[in-house]
Amino acid sequence: MFDFSNILNFRKSELVQNSAKLISANVIAQIIGVAVYPLLTRLYSPDDFGLLNLFLSIGGVLIILANAELQYSIIIPKSETTAVACFHNGLSIMVGVTLFCILTTPFSTQIANLFNTPQLADWLYFIPTFVFISSFWVLLNYWYIRNKQFGKISTYQIVQCATSVCTKCGFGFIGFTAGGMIISSIIAPLFSILINIKTSFKKILTPLLNINKQECAFAAKEYINFPKYDLPRALINNLSSNLPFFLLTPYFSLAEMGFLGMAFTLALRPINMIVSSVNHVLFQKVAELVQNRQKVNPLIKQFIKYCLLIIIPSFCVLYFFLPYLTKLLLGDGWETTGQYIRLMLPWLGIVCICGSLNFIPDVFKKQRGLLCFEIIYLIIRVISLSVGILSDNFLLCIILFSISSALIILIECFWFVKTVKNYDLQLVK
Question: In sequence order, what are the residues at sequence separation of 6 or more whose Cβ sits closer than 8 angstroms to the Cβ of residue 195?
Fold first, then answer.
């Protein structure tokens, strides 16, 4: 018999309550974002969306470099002094990478030509600002997670989304379509960060003003695995995730990339925001369990079970209606986006579960193993897309990319579960 009392207890748990705060904010943000897409697809062309996706893909790689994955180390230590030092270490690297980005701006034309997209050159000058703002929020976000300030993260998400929508619509109405969405991607997070700092500075952010060089040196040595293994892993993961935009743009039209970019936005954006919310709460909870030498596997097992109960029926229904929904939402000519999303559903379903658990190697210091997974993941994805490119078949690219991604992530998920089980067995001994 299925025990419904377990569901009731699970719903009342701190994990669910904190996740609910972030997911509720994500739902509101997604409603705001999705509601405006019918307007944006009429103000901006598929080419404009293709340009935005390429800009964000390049910026995403640089953001990872700017944090060196040290944001995760902010959550783990018991000592607040060490956590503050981890924040400062990340901040130092962020400033250095931003300065590097500034030095590359004179070569914007050459960089744009590498992607066979000359119109990108004019907007690469905004990369340093985008990297600085986005990287700073990553560090601040994990400081909030450490202090269980999930409401502050929710505020950021809602304000950022609302500001992005307003600025994109505003630029579209005045005819500033070439880079309007790119500028919006800078204004929205900046405005959201300023509001968060203003409302939380005295109570939450004051400890960050105390710089302890000796503690920073200790933290850098203690958490060296993050830049040593997590940074190359994250770079490979980001490159792997954005591989369709990097590899396919020179061979297929910017309009096709715009349709694909919209598919990634409509499908991955809500999934990533929800997964990220659950990931943040699970990370904090599991780190706390490990600090207190308590079992972790029951929590992870319960989480996976309820995810499957939600994902499988939901995605089966979506499969049949996606082309019609995207046409209704985005307008005539955009149903191609729904077809692309439908091809990605098996991969997206597995991402929903495994993405929420990808902090496990960080907690149990298995970053080297995760790096190996990411290298294999990247190689298989390159092969998959290359087969599609050589066949001059855009749909084949998406199909092979999705199938190979789903298989590798599934294997990775089994490894996460095994890692947790091994930890629990050691506690018994």
Answer: 155, 156, 159
DSSP 255-283: HHHHHHHHHHHHHHHHHHHHHHHHHHHHH
Judged against a pLDDT cut of 50, whether residue 10 lies above it is answered with no
* Rounded (5°) CA angle 105-106-112: 70
Strand ranges, E, within 309-377: none
Question: Is the pTM higher than 0.90?
Answer: no
User: How far is residue 360's CA from residue 423's CA, in Å, rounded to a whole number?
Assistant: 11
> What tokens does 61 get?
């790689």
Q: Which residues contact 352 (CB under 8 A, 6 or more apart)?
A: 271, 274, 275, 307, 311
Check the CA dihedral 282-287-289-293 and report its sign. positive
Residue whose C-alpha is closest to residue 282's, from 6, 10, 15, 77? 15
Burial of 214 (0-12, 13-18, 19+ CB in 10 A): exposed
> For all residues of the chain together, what is the average pLDDT?
83
pLDDT of residue 187: 93
Query: Using CA atoms, how far apart are residues 200 and 413, in angstroms rounded to an integer?
Result: 36
Which of 344, 296, 294, 292 lies closest to 318, judged by CA?
344
- Tell me how far apart the alpha carbons of residues 113 and 121 are, in angstroms, rounded to a whole number: 8
Cβ atoms of residues 49 and 334 within 8 Å? no
What is the amino acid identity at position 81? T
With 0-12 CB in 10 A as exposed, 13-18 as middle and 19+ as buried, what is 107?
Answer: exposed
Q: Tell me the C-alpha distance between 296 and 346, whole Å.
A: 27
| Mean pLDDT value of segment 362-383 | 85
The total number of residues shown for the chain amounts to: 429
Q: What is the tens place of the pLDDT at every residue in 54-83?
A: 898 889 889 989 988 888 888 888 888 999
- Give the model confidence (pLDDT) of 228-258 as tens digits: 877 887 788 778 877 888 888 778 877 788 8
